[in-house]
Amino acid sequence: MQLLGNLKIHFLALVLTVVAEFIGIKKLGPVVLLPLLYTLILGLLISIPKFKILTIKQMEKSADYIGIAVMILMVKVGLGIGPNLGILTSAGWALLLQEFGHFFGTIVFGLPIALLVGMRREAVGACYSVDREPNVAIIIDKFGFSSPEGRGVMGMYICGVLIGAMWSSVLAGMLAQSGWFHPLALAMGAGVGSASMMAAATAPIIAVYPDYEQQIMALAGAANLLTTVLGVYFGLFVSLPVMEKTYNFFTGRTREQDLAEEAANHE
């Protein structure tokens, strides 16, 4: 009966998915528009209270379904680990240390800026990783979709969807033309765990170093796969615990104190 009661939510989700897939992937220069972006925009529109398409209760219930989608996503990631163990073991320390770089950069540069602009526990979700799909899944599974950490990770994820590919393309192009880094090092850096960002970043690198095209594509693909696979475990057991302790150290506050203050402000 509960399934029937939420039939409207399932139907709207199906309609938005079909519409987004029908539009397909569109490229505007360095910007790649993915179906996910269309579903975000369409979902935003139908959730506006003025249109009375969904009630507040239905929107809260739809947030609970995120957990189901997260489980499916993690199964997909897990199934991709076994067939690619050979790549992971032969990748070498350069690719393995890259994962540490993703984590180190977001804490050293991201967390201070987030705290300066007034973010609270949202900074934990926003800054503990590069916030792609597996990283979103970890936060939602541990803290919940509606938690401060959930808001932070989703905010960064949406920013990545909107401008991630464009930013990756511009930054990679600038670094490639600067001559500061070897093209293969840039190729490894392009693999951040997002196919669209990787494609956007490798294009300008290849344009500057056409003789390295095959090596650039191979290394970027390996780095992207490694980040997707190892990022789950690294984020779960290293990045997130360290980020929480770092946040508590700099703010002098625990999660319980932040949540209690947030609850008091909403009363």
UniProtKB/TrEMBL annotation:
Residue stretches spanning the membrane: 7-25, 31-51, 63-81, 101-119, 152-172, 184-209, 216-240
Segments forming a coiled coil: none
Pfam families with a match to the protein in the record: DUF3100
InterPro entries, per the entry: DUF3100
Keywords: Membrane, Transmembrane, Transmembrane helix
Keyword Lyase: no
Transport keyword on record: no
Record protein name field: DUF3100 domain-containing protein
Species of origin: Veillonella hominis
